[in-house]
Amino acid sequence: MSFKKPYLAIALVGVALASGAAWWLQNKPAGPKAEASASGGAPSSAGQAAPAAAGAPGGAPVAAPGSGAPQRPPAVEVAKVEKAMLVDETQSVGSLRSFQGVMLRPEVGGRVSQVLFKDGQKVKKGQILVQFDDQLPAAQMAQSKAELSIAQANHTRNQELVAQNFISKRSLDESDAALQVAIAKLALAQATLQRFKVLAPFDGTAGLRQINVGDYLKDGTDMVNVEDIEAVLLDFRLPERFQAKIKQGQKAQVTMDALPGRKFTAVIQAIDPLIDANGRSVGVRGCIDNRQMQLRPGMFARVNAVFGERDDAMVIPEEAIVPQGGRSTVVRVVPGPNKDELISERVTVKIGIRQVGRVEVLEGLSMGDSVVVAGQQRLQKEGTVVRIVDTSKAQGGANNAAGAKPEAAGNAQKPAEKPAEKSGPKGGNASQVKDGKAQAFSGENPCTRGLNATR
Questions:
Q1: Lesser CB count within 10 Å: N end or C end of the chain?
Q2: What superfamily would CATH give domain 103-217?
Q3: Residue 63 pLDDT more than 70?
Q4: 90-97+228-310 carries CATH number 2.40.30.170
């Protein structure tokens, strides 16, 4: 036990010395180097501030960020509300179909004895196109005529006998009934015989026949189609939002991929009262005058439906519109309270027709107002002072420099265009122009005639 006491004393002394050393290291005073660095930092800061102050031209102070000094107003680009002519229109695609078209089929079965037309031939209403073998119905009609003759003679004789009181009135009534039956049989035989002749139902053009002489056809067999294409119908569809704009009598510009460079005018004739529930679209039918015979049923058509024109519409660039909470707004630049000061004003507008690069404004702006087209994101606060940047001068100089040579080249090409115009009538438009003069079609427009009209 006495042996362990010196070691315990030594341990206690070591712990005391370690604690004292730790306290001294934490609380020792700053040395000469720290004082030198602290004293040297102030001249450095002052040296940096001095050149900064001396660097300002004329000794003017320079506004530092966050120093509260006045800053330049945000720069924006503006455009004025202008007056322009706008066409309210929309595009769609459609197909052409005949003004009238039918596939001729026999009502009774029989053998073809005559084909009285050629493929592609013009036919008239009531013209006989196909004749079936009618020997049997012709014989039946002859029999009916003979029976009618006997019935008429018997009835006349009975009338005379009744007048002389040789027969009863009942015999006269029976002979009258027999006469009516004979007349009905003759009418039936004539109708049956007429069914063996296939007639053209309207004026038009016969298609390609699908029968030959000697063919035995059942009732309902396809024989030949007849198409009336002096006018062609144009069927297309529009989204349901246009159903209130499209009206009968409006015009639509039509182009065909099969006839590039040629434009046709269709007159709207009917609008389908039923809107398609699947595509939410409404069917529209127009009519095109085709007396030049350039169009064919089944052709693909591109339609530009025109709803109306506005000569004095107020328009602004499309970039000026800022959607905000389901509304369309613009930032208008108005004079501020101070002289030569412009401020921003956010205005809600009502938009009309949209076209590429410009929008019609119906309400909210006046003619000549200036609206911001670039820099709206800098004007979040109402009444912000703005600075207008005029980019027209810089763009105009660049355009003049870049466009000098192309303009000269364009002027050099202009004389070469005149001979091309002279040779135009000899080109692909020959069906419309003959001997240098446009063909004029007289008479009623085929689009305005009825379905049962004859020509």
A1: N
A2: Helix hairpin bin (1.10.287.470)
A3: no
A4: yes
